[in-house]
Amino acid sequence: MFGGKTYEILALREGRWTIEATAAHKELAQAEAAKILAKAGIQGVRVINEAKGSIDRLKPEDILFEKMKPKTEDKVFVQDIDDAPVCHAPSELFLGEPRATVNRLFRSYLDKNNLTATELMHAPREIKRLLDEGTMLFSAIGKVATFQVRKMEETSVNERRDVLFDFVNKINARAIAASNQKIPRIRVDGFNEVTGGIIATAPQEHRDHLIRYAMSVELVENRSFLGKFGQLMEWGWKAEAPEIFQAIDIFVADTLYNVDVLRDLIGNPRELGTALVTLLCVAEGRPIGDPTEEEEEPQELTPEHRDFTNRVFINLIADGKLPESQDVLLDRVRRQLEGLSPLSRGDREEEREVFLGLLDKLIPDIEIIGGPSMAQAMTARQSTIINKGGNKGMREAAETMLPTLGDPGRKTGYLLALMDSEVGQTYLRNDLETLLDKMLVESQTVNHLIRDKLPPNKKMAKVTSIYNHIEKSNLPAQRKVTLTERLDELLVSYITDGKILDKLDNPEKPLHVRALMLVSMVQPEMLPKGKASNLARSIIVRHLRRPNFEDELVAGIPDPSEKAKTLRKFHEQLHRCGFFG
User: Fold this and answer.
1) 537, 522 in Cβ contact below 8 A?
2) Among 68, 266, 412, 566, who pairs with 278 as Cys (CB 3.0-4.6 Å)?
3) How far are the Cα atoms of 344, 407, 450 from residue 403, in angstroms, in the given order?
4) Quick check: 320 and 327 in contact, CB under 8 A?
5) pLDDT tens, position by position, 301-351
6) What pTM value is reported for the model?
C-alpha cells in the first residue's frame, strides 16, 4: 500500500471468486486466507498479486497460494445472525424483519433446495423436510432465542425456545389446513382468477395466508430462483387487485437474497463500488446503465421481450409497489458498505473517490437513503478508509465525513440520521451534538453556513429545509428549540442586513408583482414560522389593510382574465401560508 506491493485474497463462494481482502505481505495474505477458508460457505481461497485484469481469467502463474475446502465439509448449515426481532405471534414470521431473519439463518438450506423462505413456511412437505434435517431447526431456534431473550424480561432461553417451536407447529398446522381447502391451481385457472376468488370468498383473517399459499404451490415446483423471479414478474405485470402486490412483494424480496437473482439483475461488475451503485439504481426504480444508451421502453411490454423480467421489476419498484424488495436491496448495500471488502481494485485514493460517488447517491440532499443504519454503515466505511478502528475511529470518521458532503443540508441529514443509529445512540452521541452545534449554532451568518454562491431565495429555502428537518427529528424538544431558534435568528439577520424585503417591496414595481413576491417569502418551503417569517408577514398585513387593496393590486393589469387569474393566485398563496387560519 502507499505505492508498495499488494496481495489480493480471493474467496470462492457458490462457484464464484471474489476479492475478500488485501494484505501488504505474502505471509500475512496466506494467514488471512486460512482464516477466511474456515468460514462457513467458503469453498476455497487464493492469494494473488494485485490483479491487472479480470480475476476470472487468471493464469496458473498468477496464483501464489490456493487451498480448497474438501467437498465433505461443504454441507448445509445455519448462518450466523447479528440480531433477531421479537415475535409475539406465528403470523409475524411471514412479514418484514422476522422473515428476513429466516432468510439469513437458512440461506444455505434455501439455496440448496431452491426455496424461498415464504414457500418453506407455506408448503407442508417442505416444512416436514426441514423438520427431518435433524439439529438444523433446533440450532436456528437456539440462535434466535438467544438474541430475543436479551430484549425480554423474565424469560429464559429455554422458555423462548419452547415458544418458537410452538410457532413452527402452528405454522405447519396452518399450511396443512390451507392444503386441505383444495384451492384452484393458478396454472390452470389463471393468476387473477385464483387470487380474485380468494379475495372474494375467504374470511379476512385467512385471506393473505391463502393467497401466499396458492402462489407457493406454483413457485415450489419451479426449482430455480431465476425462474421464480421471472414467474413473479409475470404475475406482477398482469396483477389487477392492489392488495395482491403485498404478496408479490414478499416473494420477490425473498428471491433477492439469492446471489443468482442479484447477479442477473446487475450483471457481474468488476468492482464492489460499481455493484453497489447499480443496486442503488435498481432500488430507486431507475434503469441500469448509461441513460443515453438505454433502449426505449417498448409501447407494449410483453413476456417475449428479452428484458421483460428486469424491466417489469424496475417499473414495479418505481411505482412503489415493492417496498419490502426495495428495503432488501438497500440492506444489501448497507451490509456490503459496512463490510471490509474494498470498493475498488485501485489504491486508497481510488477507494476514496469511489466512496464519494456512493455518498452522492446515498445522500442526494437532506434525506439519507437507508436511514440511520445506512448512516452508520457509511461511517464504518469511512473509518476503514482513514484506517482508524474502534470507537475513536468512528468519531474521527464522522468528523472527516462532513467536509466531503459540502452542502449543510446533507451534513445535517447525515448527523441526525447517525444520531438515531445504534452507534449514535451510544458511543458518538456527545461528539455528534458537538459537530451539529459547530455547524449550526456557531455559524455567524447564513453566508457562513451556506458558502455556495446561491441566490437569496435558494439560501433561505436551504436554511428552512434544515429547520424543518430538525423539527421532524428525534432530538429532545428543548434541543430542537435551541437549534431552530438559532436558524431563525440567522434568517432574520440575513433578511435585514441584505435589505431583502425593501428590494421586494420597492414602490417602483407594480403592486401585484410586489405582493406576489412578498407572499412567496412566507411560503412553508421558503421561511419557517418565526421571527424571519413575521418580518415579511407584517408588510403583507399592512398592504392587506389598505382600503380597496384588491382593486389596487390588479389596477395595472389591463386584461380582465389576467386580473382574475392574479387575484386567484394571490389568494391561493395567502391560504397556503396560513393567512386564513
Assistant:
1) yes
2) 266
3) 22, 9, 13
4) no
5) 777 777 888 899 999 999 999 999 999 999 999 999 998 889 988 788 888
6) 0.78
